[in-house]
Amino acid sequence: xxxxxxxxxxxxxxxxxxxxxxxxxxxxxxxxxxxxxxxxxxxxxxxxxxxxxxxxxxxxxxxxxxxxxxxxxxxxxxxxxxxxxxxxxxxxxxxxxxxxxxxxxxxxxxxxxxxxxxxxxxxxxxxxxxxxxxxxxxxxxxxxxxxxxxxxxxxxxxxxxxxxxxxxxxxxxxxxxxxxxxxxxxxxxxxxxxxxxxxxxxxxxxxxxxxxxxxxxx
Amino acid sequence: xxxxxxxxxxxxxxxxxxxxxxxxxxxxxxxxxxxxxxxxxxxxxxxxxxxxxxxxxxxxxxxxxxxxxxxxxxxxxxxxxxxxxxxxxxxxxxxxxxxxxxxxxxxxxxxxxxxxxxxxxxxxxxxxxxxxxxxxxxxxxxxxxxxxxxxxxxxxxxxxxxxxxxxxxxxxxxxxxxxxxxxxxxxxxxxxxxxxxxxxxxxxxxxxxxxxxxxxxx
DNA sequence: AGCATTTAATGAGCTGAGCTCATTTATACG
DNA sequence: CGTATAAATGAGCTCAGCTCATTAAATGCT
Lengths: 218, 218
Known about the structure:
Tetracycline Repressor, domain 2, homodimer
């Protein structure tokens, strides 16, 4: 049974075509297809089980590593970098999880949904902490931040898997953090700050006139 | 033949399970499965053809509507809103296209790849124009912007399709544009601006002293 | 140790979807 | 009207997922 799952994992990693894997597993293990169905009611259940186990182990490592990192930006950067790295190194497993997450809503929800909620909840927590500490604005739409981060990571990875060159998780993480933090617009003043500046400039102008009139400062 | 494709489109829209659609089409049209294979070498080719036609028509409308909009932010907002709306209204067709885009690199590239490149090239062009006009910073990583916009849109839509509430394309587009433009960090001054402010504040302080000493301004 | 009972494994074979092809039916043309 | 070309048919093949009656192995009990 553990053999079956290990073997399934190997095959799923090797060719991302999921057809015929039951026969393939049986062949490799020297057992018969029917035996596999003693342990897994259906091929889909076997695949989901493999995906779940992998996802769970991945999250455990994640938490351990994340625990040592402090600061909103550093923690965000780490999570993004980690996700990019995992997708870069384990695209087949990621695809399993993502396919399951995107399956029809009618299907019985697997525990992958729950694992995923736990996962993204960590990201939301980091952003919330950032808001609480005053580093991030209070009005940011939390779930959209999450969607853009993970969506961006995945899009970036698909392009890579499509064969459009390689990518560096470190650099990509840096780019994502930069965009999320600063945006892309040329910085302009907020109305308040702009107003303050204008008032200060008025003052400066008056002072200039004072100077030109040779009026002593004190 | 046109009947087959129209019928295939209807079925693909109705149930997002793609198994048995050949028999389904034949049944609905009162023909036999073999007839379908006179026009399409394989089921996959039929599906791709349907997806391509839909994608092409969608892009044509897109261009027509986009032509009437000026300004970097407005054009970006429109493209994002449009993509959100399409995914909201036609998730099944979008899934076909996306699945094809994410298929194995070994497969012969369909024209969907090319259509998609055209599509995202429009977005890149808008960002480039924004840089040229001075509205956007020159150092933004173009493809990552694209990945985050479209990835964010898709993630947002998957959550909706998973049954996690509805969403408003207009509001979602606004949120995405806001994040992309401003980022989420609390605004801080650039070194130059901070320096200028400091100098101005020094001036203001001196002026204050002048006023306190009752020295006439002129 | 020897028998009974429960559990595991087998392999033949069913199902259903994609697909093929020899044959039949319809259409076009001189 | 007859022939040539194109279109449609339906029987049936393949292959993957899956079932189940039967056989083999393991476990428990006296």
